[in-house]
């Protein structure tokens, strides 16, 4: 039906969200989800918050996986990173950067205002061609495990609701207000055009 | 154009290459392949259909465009596909096809127009996107062609129309469609305005057409018109943006569009910055907090984009202020500000609005292919500041000196009154502490802010200039307050009528709350600002609404829309579950003749409602409706137009209460016929419930009102001829008759209002009630007579008497030849003798009995019931001998009966066919009767019409010839003479002949003879003189007073006559003339006594 993007700022979030969305995608056809990064590098949690594992976008999941296994298999198994990389590598070979993707989407969901700004900046810097709208939504999600889990469910639910609307653009505003009230989080929402 | 599609075409070739591989494998020509695919597409499901169609598109647009024309129609045919995705595909195809071959525009533009009006918003959106592209394609193509064909002209007209349609969509309900319309407007403005040297045109759109490429001498497309259209589109966009209830997405879109405009057409920069300023100061109050954040973020983004444009120079101050307000640091602003360097010296293109100067120069300059920016005559400063700009500037200039600390303090104090209780979300989000309070720059900024507000509110010195681009048409107060927002403001703004006129953005559903401690702002919701009406208000408004429709009868009829009104009314009334029902019914009844349509519509609507709620549905509303209509009709003065019948017969269902009304109608003497005709129609035309209706009619057959009853009976008689009803009617009649066996009349016979507790005795009336129906059926079905007999035997005497009285008519109707009646006579159940007798009497009352009847009666009399009274009705059918046998018994009955017997015998009852033998019979009677029967002869003489003088003469003659002479002879003679004095001569003759017969030998007759002579003197003198002397003496002994007159009579004779008188007679006449008188009297007296009462009676009556 429509294409949708989630950009992730941290792996654990991406993991949860993506997992939920994948499950859902299997049960409901016609739902196309892609995950992207927006930064200049791919960062995976390291042994400490200030010591992330940093890769560039050319690195394949396979390589990251092997690298992490080599570094500390137990740690990365426990925090689920290896599991995620394992699943990801079966979907695509390497992470993608949003700014490099020329495909058109209907909806972009970001989880951090900084990412939202990046997406907006990227989208508005592109030359308009078809005027096809793309809605960009930001849900701020704190960078911890609990928040990430809640956020994953929230985003998944939002996607499901949007999927169920007859006329996404017409009902989006209202839907977001409901979610905002329900989750008590501010949502940013805008529309850009390809 | 091609560069436009470059990338997508590339992508498509990848897809297409797969199919080409297939092609080779199967070795088909492209054309065959397309045919094959199209055939598949017609049959398969949507998903695969899309794939197949995309393959076709690939083949005929990119691989072999020569096929495009061939298969165009086949593809376009899918535009009516029920799948939205397929229709969207067709739109995409139209775009590709038209771009590939502009000629196709002529054929496809109408299809696109159709799809632009599709029911699915997604299709409409796609159509808008495509049209955005095709508008430019079309314009370019038409501009290229120096001569336009009629078809091309028509095509351009349609394109222009579609453009207007899409612009109008800025006001449509759907948020998404509005978003697309905004983008179209953006593209349109860019196309319809000249590209200038400082235009920041994206590479892809380098080749796009714009106003500057439109030749001024084009035969059909007018430069000026397009220019005006572009301006008006911009105006529309700006107007759209300042709508106070704009949705956040629309606003975001519009902000982006303005930024694009500012960069691609710097001539609009002033308007754009102005619009941004206005917006920033007047964020729509309907935005929720997070939406405010989103919008501000966007505004910042777009302002930056505008700022980066070289032409922003003169607006840098305003933009920077805005950006500062939006929370951007001075450094960041500086970083994004283009270096003033040569821009300052670069010529600023004349403002677009200043059309005359612009007219020729750019066109001429760009005629050559030189992409290099031509050096136009330098104008270091904009020659004219845009009008709107100046309005704000003027006001700002005006305000600035006024903003003294004192004035500002007063303003703040006054404004406090208007401040909302809680800080509104938008204010909270916008608020940044004023760093430079009191500085000149800050005062200037403040003046400008206020000027923006005032200009928008159309006040202030700047307002005097007319050509304002942006105006917010909201009241001053509301406007001012909208800066800070708040519930109060929202209300006052929403209550302004123009809110309804303008596009209504999406209204989120959660309840709005006054911004709480959290300062969280809820989105605007219609539900929150409209108070639900109270039930009473609702009802009142509903009522008045329906009444208006109701009473607009004439006006609507004149417009020929009566049927719509009728339908509307009936539906409304039904939906409101009868609140309005009574009003409407009353209205109908005021003039039901012309409003019968409404009545029926209402009835059927109610019935339909009932049916739709089956099986639990209630008929109450329908019943009420039908009942009121019928009852209303009943109360009206008599109508002959058959509306009542029409209503009853066409009503879908007759309810109990409706049937009651029909019944009442039937009971109304003035309408009984109409009512019953209706009832009859019902019985005949509604077989499923015919017995229910028939029952009503049957019930009425015993109604107390004669007219009702007789009508009912005559209707029933007609019904009785129908086989399917016959049994029911019969059973009813018999059941009713069966009631007669009860000792008291059952309550059934009384109307409800009478007191049925007291067991009243049978009356003639109640008995009749039970019999009316039966008796009217009897002549139609003779078999029923046996039932009467059995009931009769069980009934009490009172009833029996009544029965005997009422059966006359029907029995006579049956006639004496009825086999059933004969059978009844033959069987005569025990106890029914009186009934049978009565029947016999009725039958023979007017006509003589038939031989069969006589036979049955005789049989009955002899074999079973030897009651002589049976014989009376048939007596004149009996043999003489039988009569004589019976007579003695008959005569013993009471005089009334005897009289009847004789009447019958004498045939007086059947006056029209007098029995010829009656004089003879009478003679016979007179001969045979013993003295008491003189009563009978006496009766006979009463019948003067039978016993005329002639008849009596014959009777006398016969009697006299009888030997011995009948005792009553002389009495008959005397009576006859009394009745008919002219019989005197005849009587004299009789008397003379009696002398010959030696009448004196019969003492009784002799006595009468003398009496007769006495009464007929002097006529009788000649008769007396014929008597022998002895008898004459006897006469004188009886009546001595006769002698002297007789003697004188003789003396008066002539001598010749006297000679005939014998001497002995003379002796008798003259002798003992005096002495014997007293003695003579005594024997007469004695004789009288001897004759007894009978004789006395006779003579008395004669003497009278």
From TrEMBL, chain A:
Recorded catalytic activity of this chain's protein: O-phospho-L-threonyl-[protein] + H2O = L-threonyl-[protein] + phosphate; O-phospho-L-seryl-[protein] + H2O = L-seryl-[protein] + phosphate
EC number: 3.1.3.16
A single Gene Ontology CC term: nucleus
Enzyme class: hydrolase
GO terms for MF: protein serine/threonine phosphatase activity
Coiled coil (residue ranges): none
Family membership noted in the UniProt record: Belongs to the SSU72 phosphatase family.
Matches recorded under PANTHER family: RNA POLYMERASE II SUBUNIT A C-TERMINAL DOMAIN PHOSPHATASE
Name of protein: RNA polymerase II subunit A C-terminal domain phosphatase SSU72
Native organism: Esox lucius
Lineage per the UniProt record: Eukaryota, Metazoa, Chordata, Craniata, Vertebrata
UniProtKB/TrEMBL annotation, chain B:
Keywords assigned by UniProt, alphabetized: mRNA processing, Nucleus
InterPro entries the record matches: ARM-like, ARM-type_fold, Symplekin/Pta1, Symplekin/Pta1_N, Symplekin_C
Any one GO cellular component localisation term in the record: mRNA cleavage and polyadenylation specificity factor complex
Chain segments carrying region Disordered: 334-362
Main localization of the protein described in the UniProt heading: nucleus
SUPFAM superfamilies membership: ARM repeat
Coiled-coil annotated spans: none
Stretches assigned to the Symplekin C-terminal domain: 867-1039
Compartments where found: Nucleus
Composition skew (Basic and acidic residues), residue ranges: 348-360
Boundaries of every Symplekin/Pta1 N-terminal domain copy: 121-343
Example GO biological process: mRNA processing
Recorded superkingdom: Eukaryota
Residue ranges of the TM segments: none
Protein name as catalogued: Symplekin
UniProt lineage: Eukaryota, Metazoa, Chordata, Craniata, Vertebrata
């Amino acid at each position: 039906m429509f294409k949708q993007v989630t950009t992730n700022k941290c792996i654990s979030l991406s993991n949860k969200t993506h997992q939920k969305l994948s499950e859902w995608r299997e049960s409901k056809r016609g739902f196309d989800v892609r995950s992207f990064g927006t930064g200049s590098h791919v960062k995976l949690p390291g042994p400490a918050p200030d010591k992330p594992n940093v890769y560039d976008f050319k690195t394949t999941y396979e390589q990251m996986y092997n690298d992490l296994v080599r570094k500390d298999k137990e740690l990365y198994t426990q925090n689920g990173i290896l599991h995620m990389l394992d699943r990801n590598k079966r979907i695509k070979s390497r992470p993608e950067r949003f700014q490099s993707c020329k495909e058109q989407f209907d909806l972009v969901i970001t989880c951090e205002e900084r990412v939202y700004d990046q997406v907006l900046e990227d989208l508005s810097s592109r030359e308009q061609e078809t005027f096809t709208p793309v809605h960009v939504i930001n849900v701020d999600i704190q960078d911890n495990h609990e928040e990430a889990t809640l956020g994953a469910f929230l985003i998944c639910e939002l996607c499901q609701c949007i999927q169920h609307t007859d006329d996404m653009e017409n009902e989006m505003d209202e839907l977001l207000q409901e979610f905002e009230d329900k989750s008590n989080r501010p949502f940013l929402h805008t529309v850009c055009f390809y | 154009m091609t560069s436009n599609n470059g990338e997508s075409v590339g992508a498509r070739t990848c897809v297409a290459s797969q199919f080409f591989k297939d092609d080779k494998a199967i070795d088909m020509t492209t054309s065959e392949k397309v045919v094959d695919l199209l055939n598949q597409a017609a049959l398969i499901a949507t998903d695969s259909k899309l794939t197949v169609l995309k393959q076709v598109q690939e083949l005929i647009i990119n691989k072999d465009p020569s096929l495009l024309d061939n298969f165009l129609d086949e593809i376009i045919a899918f535009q009516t596909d029920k799948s939205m995705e397929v229709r969207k595909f067709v739109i995409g195809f139209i775009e590709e096809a038209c771009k590939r071959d502009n000629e196709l525009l002529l054929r496809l533009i109408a299809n696109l127009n159709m799809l632009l009006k599709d029911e699915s918003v997604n299709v409409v959106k796609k159509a808008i996107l495509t049209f955005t592209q095709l508008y430019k394609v079309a314009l370019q193509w038409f501009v290229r062609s120096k001569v336009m064909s009629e078809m091309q002209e028509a095509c351009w007209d349609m394109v222009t129309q579609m453009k207007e349609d899409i612009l109008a969509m800025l006001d449509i309900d759907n948020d998404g469609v509005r978003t697309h319309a905004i983008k179209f407007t953006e593209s349109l403005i860019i196309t319809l305005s000249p590209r200038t040297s400082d235009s920041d045109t994206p590479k892809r759109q380098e080749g796009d057409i714009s106003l500057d490429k439109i030749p001024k001498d084009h035969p059909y497309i007018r430069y000026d018109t397009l220019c005006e259209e572009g301006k008006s589109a911009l105006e529309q966009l700006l107007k759209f943006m300042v709508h106070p209830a704009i949705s956040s997405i629309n606003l975001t879109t519009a902000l982006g569009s303005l930024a694009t405009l500012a960069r691609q057409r710097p001539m609009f920069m002033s308007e754009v910055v102005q619009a941004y300023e206005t917006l920033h100061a007047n964020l729509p109050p309907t935005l929720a907090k997070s939406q405010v954040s989103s919008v501000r973020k966007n505004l910042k983004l777009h302002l930056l984009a505008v700022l980066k444009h070289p032409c922003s120079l003169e607006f840098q101050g305003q933009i920077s202020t805005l950006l500062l307000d939006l929370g951007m640091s001075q450094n960041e602003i500086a970083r994004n500000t283009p270096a003033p360097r040569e821009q300052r010296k670069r010529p600023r293109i004349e403002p677009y609005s200043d059309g005359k100067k612009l007219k020729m120069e750019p066109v001429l300059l760009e005629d050559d292919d030189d992409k290099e920016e031509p050096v136009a005559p330098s104008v270091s400063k904009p020659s004219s500041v845009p009008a709107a700009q100046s309005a704000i500037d003027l006001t700002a200039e005006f305000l600035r000196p006024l903003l003294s600390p004192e004035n500002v303090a007063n303003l703040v104090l006054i404004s406090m009154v208007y401040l909302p209780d809680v800080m509104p979300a938008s204010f909270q989000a916008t608020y940044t502490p004023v760093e430079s309070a009191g500085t000149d720059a800050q005062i200037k900024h403040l003046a400008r802010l206020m000027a923006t507000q005032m200009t928008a509110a159309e006040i202030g010195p700047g307002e005097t200039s007319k050509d304002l681009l942006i105006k917010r048409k909201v009241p001053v107060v509301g406007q001012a307050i909208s800066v800070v927002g708040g519930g109060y403001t929202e209300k006052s703004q929403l209550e302004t009528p123009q809110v309804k006129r303008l596009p209504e953005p999406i209204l989120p559903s959660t309840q709005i709350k006054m911004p709480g401690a959290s300062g969280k702002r809820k989105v605007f919701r219609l539900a929150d600002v409209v108070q639900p009406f109270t039930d009473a208000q609702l009802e009142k408004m509903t009522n008045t609404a329906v009444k208006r429709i109701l009473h607009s009868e004439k006006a609507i009829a004149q417009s020929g829309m009566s049927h719509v009104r009728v339908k509307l009314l009936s539906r409304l009334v039904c939906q409101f579950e009868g609140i309005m029902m009574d009003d409407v019914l009353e209205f109908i009844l005021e003039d039901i003749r012309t409003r019968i349509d409404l009545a029926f519509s209402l009835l059927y609507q109610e019935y339909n409602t009932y049916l739709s709620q089956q099986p639990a549905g209630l008929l109450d509303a329908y019943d009420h409706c039908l009942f009121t209509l019928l009852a209303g009709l009943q109360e009206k003065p008599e109508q002959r137009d058959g509306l009542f019948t029409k209503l009853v017969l066409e009503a879908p269902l007759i309810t109990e209460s409706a049937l009651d009304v029909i019944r009442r109608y039937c009971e109304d003497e003035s309408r009984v016929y109409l009512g019953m005709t209706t009832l009859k129609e019902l019985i005949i035309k509604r077989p499923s419930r015919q017995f229910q209706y028939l029952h009503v009619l049957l019930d009425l057959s015993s109604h107390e009102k004669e007219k009702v009853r007789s009508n009912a009976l005559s209707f029933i008689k007609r019904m009785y001829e129908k086989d399917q009803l016959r049994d029911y009617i019969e059973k009813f009649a018999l059941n009713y008759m069966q009631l007669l066996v009860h000792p008291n009349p059952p309550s059934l016979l009384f109307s409800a209002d009478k007191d049925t507790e007291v067991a009243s005795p049978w009356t003639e009336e109640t008995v009749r009630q039970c019999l009316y129906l039966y008796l009217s059926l009897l002549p139609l079905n003779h078999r029923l007579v046996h039932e009467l007999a059995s009931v009769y035997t069980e009934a009490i005497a009172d009833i029996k008497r009544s029965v005997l009285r009422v059966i006359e008519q029907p029995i006579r109707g049956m006639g004496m030849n009825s086999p059933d009646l004969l059978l009844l006579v033959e069987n005569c159940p025990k106890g029914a003798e009186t009934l049978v007798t009565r029947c016999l009497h009725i039958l023979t009352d007017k006509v003589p009995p038939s031989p069969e009847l006589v036979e049955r009666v005789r049989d009955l009399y002899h074999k079973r019931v030897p009651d002589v009274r049976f014989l009376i009705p048939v007596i004149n059918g009996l043999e003489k001998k039988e009569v004589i046998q019976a007579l003695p018994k008959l005569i013993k009955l009471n005089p009334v009966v005897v009289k009847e017997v004789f009447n019958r015998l004498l045939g007086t009852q059947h006056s029209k066919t007098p029995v010829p033998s009656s004089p003879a019979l009478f003679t016979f009677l007179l001969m045979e009767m013993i003295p008491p029967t003189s009563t009978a002869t006496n009766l006979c003489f009463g019948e003067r019409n039978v016993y005329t003088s002639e008849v009596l003469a014959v009777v006398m003659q016969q009697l006299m010839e009888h030997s011995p002479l009948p005792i009553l002879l002389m009495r008959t003679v005397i009576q006859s003479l009394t009745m008919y004095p002219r019989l005197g001569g005849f009587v004299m003759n009789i008397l003379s002949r009696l002398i010959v017969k030696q009448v004196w030998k019969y003492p009784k007759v002799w006595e009468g003879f003398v009496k007769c002579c006495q009464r007929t003197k002097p006529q009788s003198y000649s008769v007396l003189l014929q008597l022998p002397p002895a008898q004459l003496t006897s006469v004188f002994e009886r009546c001595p007073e006769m002698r002297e007159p007789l003697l004188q009579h003789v003396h008066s004779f002539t001598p010749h006559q006297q000679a005939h008188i014998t001497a002995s007679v003379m002796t008798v006449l003259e002798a003992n003339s005096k002495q014997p008188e007293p003695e003579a009297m005594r024997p007469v007296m004695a004789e009288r006594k001897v004759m007894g009462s009978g004789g006395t009676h006779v003579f008395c009556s004669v003497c009278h």
